[in-house]
Amino acid sequence: MTALSGMARPDTAIERGSRMADYKTDIEIAQEAEMLPISEVAAKVGLTEDQLDHYGKYKAKVDIHALKDAPRKAKLVLVTAINPTPAGEGKTTTSVGLADALSRLGKKAVLALREPSLGPVFGIKGGAAGGGYAQVVPMEDINLHFTGDFHAIGAANNLLAAMLDNHIQQGNALGIDPKQIVWKRAVDMNDRQLRHIVDGLGGRMQGVPREDGFDITVASEVMAAFCLASDLMDLKARLGRMVVAYTYDGKPVTASDLKAEGAMAALLKDAIKPNLVQTLEHTPAFVHGGPFANIAHGCNSVQATETALKLGEYVVTEAGFGADLGAEKFLDIKCRMANLDPDAVVVVATVRALKYNGGVPKAELTTENLEALEAGIPNLLRHVSNIRDVYGLPVVVAINAFPTDTAAELKLVEDKCRELGVNVALSEVWAKGGVGGEALAQEVMRLCEEPHEFHFSYESGADIEDALDAIATKIYHADGVDYTPGAKKQLRQLRENGFGNMPVCVAKTQYSFTDDQHRLGAPENFRITVRNLKVSAGAGFVVALTGDIMTMPGLPKVPAAEKIDVLEDGTIVGLF
Prior knowledge:
Blueprint: H1 13-21, H2 26-32, H3 38-43, E1 52-54, E2 60-62, E3 75-81, H4 91-104, E4 109-113, H5 118-122, E5 130-131, E6 134-137, H6 139-143, H7 149-169, E7 176-181, E8 185-187, E9 197-199, E10 210-212, E11 214-216, H8 221-228, H9 232-241, E12 243-247, E13 252-254, H10 261-268, E14 275-279, E15 284-287, H11 302-311, E16 314-318, H12 323-338, E17 344-349, H13 351-357, H14 370-390, E18 395-400, H15 407-419, E19 424-427, H16 429-432, H17 438-448, H18 464-475, E20 481-483, H19 485-496, E21 504-507, E22 528-536, E23 541-546, E24 565-566, E25 572-573
Parallel strand pairs: 3-16, 3-17, 4-15, 4-16, 8-11, 17-18, 18-19, 20-22, 21-23
Antiparallel strand pairs: 1-2, 2-14, 5-6, 6-14, 7-12, 9-10, 12-13, 14-15, 22-23, 24-25
């Protein structure tokens, strides 16, 4: 099935410029929206007032105890993407529009998305509540603080850090080696100044001087455990298993050894309840948890997904960045741990991202360039092949339309996909909302009825080395994996301490299948280099850092924060 043919698109710069001038900004659209009281949105999926903890008129947390024994009944649809440009390519926008389209077609659709991090909001990408006429609202609240979940996660993380340093200060009964502390503090902001610091200065009463550092909150293990926990007690158990340091004789020290997990769980007891909001078209949306997909596992909470599956007919969820990162982790980590079996996968592509993968600089992506577009299409086809051939899942390509796309460019993408038997649908949800996603929704519904046999890219219980080799060769199409001397030592230590057979969460650039962000398209003849291995025992996986990936991003030369402001009446401007 295709849905591109006959769709007229502007062909000249004048026409494109005129069309773009007609559009309102995302925040203007969101602020003009007429939202329903959240209790009315909840009632659409059978939630009662007694199950809601209100955060104002349009946001609520859901007490899901009454749903604990309810069966899953919905089809699960994963939205992922090709390798993006630095601006992102609209997975969340497509997810929102797809859910609205399913609702327009008479289906009980529910969204399950991640919460935005303040780092990208004030950095380069802006907000993560969708865009155009496919947004979740209230957009400003969701992007700025929301219900306070991330603050609670950061507080729990930093409580553990404080208790760890206090234990050392008070005599160090556990024999912790200060040079083998692996737990970092966290803040939900891009702040490169905090990557590597020295603290505890100022004399004996100010703590033990040592090297330290910060992760951005969304890359913290507390965030990962929070998102993978099945309930509050499971979360407390996961918190207790977190490895924070090693003793002088190389034994792991956990949060449970420091007696910290109870207080950490107390800080998170309300945060773990899923947040309910709505789309511009009043489709229920659970927005909960928010790990990055390039440096964490990149999926919303199991609690939110599980709740949505019990309430709707179709659940639309998304995983961060390209399918080599977010989808791989969704399928190999989240689905493995939560026993999920997706019914269909949508791979989002844009003309501009394909041209970017074909070698066009970011500043020139709005100019028609068929040669570069054709050079970038193998990136899309590789992602599609991975989903279909490695994981065994039905897949459709969604072309997320931009005003600058030309008819010739859209036709070229359609033709190349059709040559390989790949289903493709045009998504115009940014400009038209749910009605612009109906063709995609029809194809998703069809795919959800197809039989499939889902399997992971590596077996459960595989050795770390074997799991990494499978991801690298099957998903990235690398020739293999190399380890730095430090990573080899860490690999031996992980095996010795009983962590050698956990799933692997690869931290890698989002812009390339390789660990080099400059190698775009569908590169071949390369190897992946692992420079650091770290156990996240509470989350239940081992993190493998590759290339020059950082767990604390920095702000760009001109951060988005410079354009964000608040007016006298409290209206926020400049947020996108």
